[in-house]
Amino acid sequence: MPSQTAEIRTASFADLNTRTFHDLLKLRIDVFVVEQNCPYPELDGRDVEPGTRHLWLTDGGAPLAYLRILADPDGTARIGRVVVAPAARGGGQAGRLMAAALEVVGNRACVLDAQSHLVAFYTRHGFAVSGPEYVEDGIPHTPMRRPAPTTPAIDV
User: Fold this and answer.
1) Largest Cα–Cα distance in the chain?
2) 102-150 pLDDT tens trace
3) What is the C-alpha to C-alpha distance for residues 69 and 77, in angstroms, rounded to an integer?
4) Which helix (H) or strand (E) holds 98?
5) pTM exceeds 0.70 for this model
């Protein structure tokens, strides 16, 4: 089980070295394509966009968990490719990574397409179901949205 001292790292594509990007892709492919048996084009071109931020947890070796934050054209942040290595599951790593991602998102609205069995996890992070469930690559998904935080009015 990974320790709670695992480091959270954040980088744009331009700041990733080749080995790190390889390791992040390997984790994504090992889980989404192989484990979940979903042959799909993992390299969708969005990893290299200037507004994309890659976040991952590492404990001195291969990544334990990963997600990316995309910048949608309307300014909304889109979290995707949320993945935890099998050996790191059950230790709170996804929650740590999601909390870090929401710090990066800041005051922007944020959306994601959750695998439906994980809706409760995302609800705990402020997301609410925003549309009907759909099936993608044989897996039920649910669109979710976290509105931009509102600033309370200041009485003068």
Assistant:
1) 58
2) 999 999 999 999 999 999 999 999 999 999 999 998 899 999 999 987 7
3) 6
4) helix 93-105
5) yes
User: Which one-letter DSSP state was computed for residue 108?
Assistant: S
Reading the block at residue 89, the tokens are 């599951």
CB 97 within 8 A of CB 82: yes
How big is the CA angle at 139 (ends 69 and 129), to the nearest 5 degrees? Answer: 60
How far is residue 66 CA from its own chain's centroid? 6
Under 8 Å CB-to-CB from 3, ≥6 apart: which residues?
Answer: 59
The pLDDT value given to residue 2: 45
Q: b vs e for 90-109, b when ≥16 Cβ sit within 10 Å of the residue's Cβ?
A: ebebbebbbebbbebbeebb
- Total residue length of the chain: 156
**Residue 60 region by backbone torsions, left for phi larger than 0, else alpha for psi between -120 and 50, else beta:** left
